[in-house]
Amino acid sequence: MLLSYKESASSVSAHAHRGPWVSPPCPRPYQRESRGRAISKEERPGSCHVTPALLSTGMEPEEGTPLWRLQKLPAELGPKLLHKIIDGICGRTYPVYQDYQSVWESAEWMHVLEDITKFFKAVVGKNLSDEEVFQQLSQLNSFHQEAIMKCLKSRKDEIKQALLEEIVDISSAQLQDFDWQLKVRIYLFMNVYVFYFIFGIERSIYFFNVYI
User: Fold this and answer.
1) What pLDDT, in 10s, does the model give residues 33-45?
2) According to the per-residue pLDDT averaged within each range, which of 28-37, 79-88, 179-188 is highest?
3) CB under 8 Å, gap of 24 or more: what pairs does 58-61 form?
4) Which pLDDT does position 41 carry in this prediction?
5) CA distance 138 to 142
6) Which of 53, 91, 143, 163 has the lowest CB atom count within 10 Å?
7) CB-CB contact of 113 with 81 (8 Å)
């Protein structure tokens, strides 16, 4: 049998006078139909159900902020990892997962490498100031912030040189591709004249429009 509104109010008021540490009792569970479905625990008025979100009080770095996964790494391992990643950027060996499998899972490790690599390249490529860099590191502890800044200051020139070499390689590849296409077009263009003398101008123009 359902409690009336007055009975519920008087019950809560009576328990409230027992002292500040006594919480009012939860109303008896009940079921009522709402458009053909039963009311869940969370929807009941005065329910004592506590959601997991209310119990979460940990202060973790926000996902999506630069290098937030680095927060899992012990502070003493930070400089070694950062320098090894810069080695990889400069064409040497990247750090291996086996050395950090106790910190990250394999899938997460790939994101760590990618995030830190992109961060160093962006900071050096855009020539960001120390203040701008610190703004991106605000979610990390002071140990990791200091390690990152030291790595940037000591190896900035190496990273810049690596970026320049990447640009040169890309430009060379594009030039080679352009040179190859140009040679093909010249070859086909020269053959148009041969077609002109053999098959006439109409077929030569058709060949030129289709293949060049």
Assistant:
1) 444 444 444 444 4
2) 79-88
3) 61/139, 61/140
4) 46
5) 9
6) 53
7) no
Kindly report the number of other CB atoms within 10 A of residue 124's CB atom. 21
pLDDT tens, position by position, 86-103: 999 999 999 999 999 999
Tokens 């004249």 locate to: 193
> Of the spans 20-24, 33-37, 193-197, which averages the highest pLDDT?
193-197
Distance between CA atoms of 45 and 26, rounded to whole angstroms? 10
| Residue 50 to residue 101: CA distance in whole angstroms | 35
This prediction's pTM: 0.53
pLDDT beyond 90 at 146 = yes
**Measuring CA to CA, how many Å separate 109 from each of 95, 112, 121, 183?**
10, 5, 18, 45
DSSP code per residue over the chain: -PPPHHHHHHHHHHHHTT-TTPPPPPPPP---EETTEEPPGGGSTT-----HHHH----PPPTTSTTGGGGGS-GGGHHHHHHHHHHHHTTSPPPPGGGTTTTS-HHHHHHHHHHHHHHHHHHHHTT--HHHHHHHTTTS-HHHHHHHHHHHHHHHHHHHHHHHHHHHHHHHHHHHHHHHHHHHHHHHHHHHHHHHHHH-HHHHHHHHHHH-
Which residue pairs, CB below 8 angstroms and at least 24 apart, start in 7-14?
A: none
Let me know: does 171 contact 103? Beta carbons within 8 Å.
no
